[in-house]
Amino acid sequence: MKKGTPEKKPVITSVRSDDASYDVKLMFPVLFLVGIGIVMVYSTSSALALKKFGSDYYFLKKQIVFSFLGIIALIACRHIPMKVIRSLTYPILILAVFSLVALKVTGFGYSANNATRWLRFGFINFQPSEFARLALIIYLAYSISKKKDDIKNFGIGFLPHFFVLCIFTVLILLQPDFGSIIIFWSITWIMLFVGGARILHLLSPLIIGLPFFCFFIINSAYRLKRIISFLNPWQYSTDEGYQIIHSLMAFGTGGIWGTGIGKGYQKLFYLPEPHTDFIFSVIGEELGLCGVLIIIGLYTLILWVGISIAKNARDSFESFMAVGITCAIAIQVCINMGVTVGLLPTKGLALPFLSYGGTSLLFSMASIGILMNIGASCLKKT
Question: Contact, 358 vs 66, CB < 8 A?
Fold first, then answer.
């Protein structure tokens, strides 16, 4: 180099770290929610655990273990190459189907509240529908990206995906788990819509399936009663409307600032399932409107980052994966919160990252790990 000539420095247009890079905008709200969840699980379950198991720490200790395993799942999925996940699409799909079948054809199916939704292996309970949801997202992302040029063709772009959805629907109906079916259908519809499927194709199964939907509602006494009690819960305050009434009372008691952590009243054997389906109600009572807005803000940040990752993904498979994962979390959050404030009929769905439950937390954290994986690969684009 000649004297006096300024040294040229390399211009770095993008950097991708394959080691231990994590998106703080995604990691922070997830870990914050998990931390709040641990605190609230103890607050909501201590009285129940003491009465039922003789220790107020029973659910707390299990939730801490679930959270630790969830973080391991997040880290593992963050570093598994996306090409490996893509190559395992069909084995994962088949395994998900077999796990749902196993609920009915093996002796490992475990029933609670008139539903067989768990496989029990010793002291371990596993909910196959949570795994099946992620398997469906992976399959749809792979298939839609592969058929994107023919996505408007009914026989290629719509029918195969609808067939797989119907298999999952039938298997989950046998449990039964109507809430999961709504999530599965919503995810499929949104991913196909984003993929470019024709609106007419998307609407056709909804129109055809409406009579069957009405049939299942009318011919199921408890589902029909849930719908009727949803319209007027105060008329059924001693049975089907009991949960939503006490949930609304929890929110009303909380006011703006809440009664304080551990000082809620509805969790004391008034509000059923306070540590699972209705944990948001207790949050409203003990943390008040401010706590509720913080929780909503954290979920909004997760969804905003997820949409951003989907828009900037390096290929269509990863983009559709990000769409599916983000929508799955959003739908579950909206349904759970909608139920607790009386906007939707009662459904047994956990609130992601907050509710007590190992399988839900494990696969929610694994999904975030995949989302981080896709986000990291975005940086490779120049």
Answer: yes
Domains of the chain by residue range: 24-378
Helix (H, G, I), strand (E, B) or coil at 116: strand
* Phi, psi dihedrals of residue 125, rounded to the nearest 5°: -110, 135
109 bridge partner residues: 119
Closest CA to 165 of 133, 142, 194, 195: 133
Q: Quote the Cα angle for 137-138-140, to 5°.
A: 65
Tokens standing for residue 110: 């475990």
pLDDT for the residue numbered 380 = 58
The label of the residue with tokens 């395992």 reads: 88
Q: Is 261 exposed, middle or buried (0-12, 13-18, 19+ CB in 10 A)?
A: middle
pLDDT exceeds cutoff 90 at 179: no
**Of 162 and 17, the one with more pLDDT:** 162
At 1, the amino acid letter reads M
Would you place residue 122 in the very low, low, confident or very high pLDDT band (cuts 50, 70, 90)?
confident
Q: Which is it for the CA torsion 185, 295, 131, 145, positive or negative?
A: positive
Q: How many CB atoms lie within 10 A of CB 318?
A: 25
Of residues 297, 362, 363, 294, the one with CA closest to residue 328: 363
Beta-strand runs (E) in the chain: 109-112, 115-121, 124-126
